[in-house]
Amino acid sequence: MFHSKIIGIGHFVPEKVVTNHDLEKLMDTSDEWIQERTGIKERRFYDPPEKGSTAIMAYKASLIALERAKLKAKDIDAIVFATLSPDYYFPGSGVLLQHMLEMDTKPAIDIRAQCSGFIYALSVADQFIKTGMYKRILVIGSETQNLALDLTTRGRGMGVLFGDGGGAAILEATDEEGKGILSTHLHSQGEFADVLCIREPGSNKIGKSVYENMHLNHDNIHPQMDGQLVFKNAIKRMPEVTMEALAANNLTTEDIDMFLPHQANLRISQMVQKFLRLPDEKVYNNIQKYGNTTAATLPILLSDLWEQGRIKEGQLFALAAFGSGFTWASTLIRF
Ligand code: UT7
């Protein structure tokens, strides 16, 4: 059976930096509150004249990943694209990216698992590679979230948390034992769907009524969250699913060289780190400069480390995520 090795990673973040001080001018908040409660100092907002930003950021990230993998888009067999902020209501952003990369008629699959989206996408791609159906797959996490945020005091609970960006990873089949993605572990619990969501436009609202709803129902078109309930579940599920991955591979936390937690809140990452008893040098956070970029978070973390030369052959990386759905997931990757 084949295994999936990551042979290239890239990311793209928009140029526009939005600091906490910039947000202070839009709403009743403070740099102090945001940093103390979340660790975030700034985030990027995609704000160009062109439309279709989620796919465009994915495209720019993909070009970097392809270059690092020394491949051309035509060498890729399929795309798996994770996002909660697709360019269109339908079709998914995967086909837009497939067209931009001029990938003939190669398949594009869209994944909707929010903050866990990138690990879900890796898992789907990994299954295709293991079975031998595809040899090389482009896996994407990309998000344009600023347009959905309510950047007034009313929406400050969510408005300060999120940022935009895209990340790409290229998986390739290898027959080397013990290399690449060792396993993926996925969970969901839909009873909590309403705890963190954007409700509209939902399937019963498409058509004429979308327009009316957009104006009538302020709360439903912006993200809503019970922050404390999400927080409590995140700090429980991320360590749990990381331990599940370690147990499945007969490994312990001591075997981890680098742990990458989904970047929703620095306090969540620090608590998860504490549960797993990992030293600071084995955990990487970048929420300070990007905020929560949802499905793009993990590939951006990986690409950041790649650029810093901090991904070394033989190292064991553990990735864990938790978010809307609820969904949560983990993976272990041996580079
Ligand atoms: O990626 C998806 C997963 N998302 C998460 O994992 C997020 C999980 N939740 C969290 O990270 C935290 O719950 C938040 C950062 C969202 C909020 O932190 P908190 O410590 O739970 O604050 P809170 O919601 O309990 O609010 C505390 C106070 C409230 O004021 P009162 O009622 O105590 O007077 C809020 O109105 O802080 C107020 N507040 C703000 N103040 C200034 C809420 N948002 C802001 C803000 N600026 N942006």
Kindly describe this structure.
By secondary structure, the protein is α/β, with parallel strands linked by helices. The chain has two domains: 3-174, Peroxisomal Thiolase, Chain A, domain 1, CATH 3.40.47; 180-334, 3-Layer(aba) Sandwich (Peroxisomal Thiolase, Chain A, domain 1), CATH 3.40.47.10. Helices cover 35% and strands 23% of the residues. The protein has helices at residues 20-24, 31-38, 53-69, 93-100, 117-130, 156-159, 208-216, 218-221, 227-248, 266-275, 287-290, 297-307; strands spanning 3-12, 17-19, 42-44, 78-82, 108-111, 136-143, 165-174, 180-188, 196-197, 224-225, 258-261, 316-323, 327-334. Strands 1-7-6-4-5 form a five-stranded mixed sheet, sandwiched between helices. It has a four-stranded mixed sheet with strand order 8-13-12-11, with helices on both faces. Strands 2-3 form a two-stranded antiparallel sheet. Strand 12 (316-323) and strand 13 form a beta hairpin. The two termini are 18 Å apart. Bound molecules: oxa(dethia)-CoA (UT7). Residues 29, 33, 37-38, 115, 156-157, 160, 227-228, 230-231, 234, 264-265, 268, 292, 323-324 line the site of oxa(dethia)-CoA. Oxa(dethia)-CoA is lined by residues 29, 33, 37-38, 115, 156-157, 160, 227-228, 230-231, 234, 264-265, 268, 292, 323-324.
TL;DR?
The chain is α/β, with parallel strands linked by helices and 335 residues long.
Query: What is the CATH T-level topology of the largest domain?
Result: Peroxisomal Thiolase, Chain A, domain 1
- The averaged pLDDT comes out at 94
Tally the helices: what do you get? 12
Major pleated sheet:
5 strands, mixed
Radius of gyration: 19 Å
SSE sequence, one letter per element: EEHHEHEHEHEHEEEHHEHEHHHEE
- Classification by helices and strands: alpha/beta
User: What is the CATH architecture term of the largest domain?
Assistant: 3-Layer(aba) Sandwich
How much strand content do the residues show?
Answer: 15-25%
Taken together, the total number of domains comes to: 2
Bound molecules: oxa(dethia)-CoA
Share of helical residues: 25-40%
Query: Order of strands across the widest beta sheet?
Result: 1-7-6-4-5
The total beta strand count reads: 13
Q: Which runs of at least 5 residues are low in confidence (pLDDT < 50)?
A: none
C-alpha termini separation: 18 Å
Q: Look at the structure and name the CATH superfamily of the largest domain.
A: Thiolase/Chalcone synthase
Shape: globular
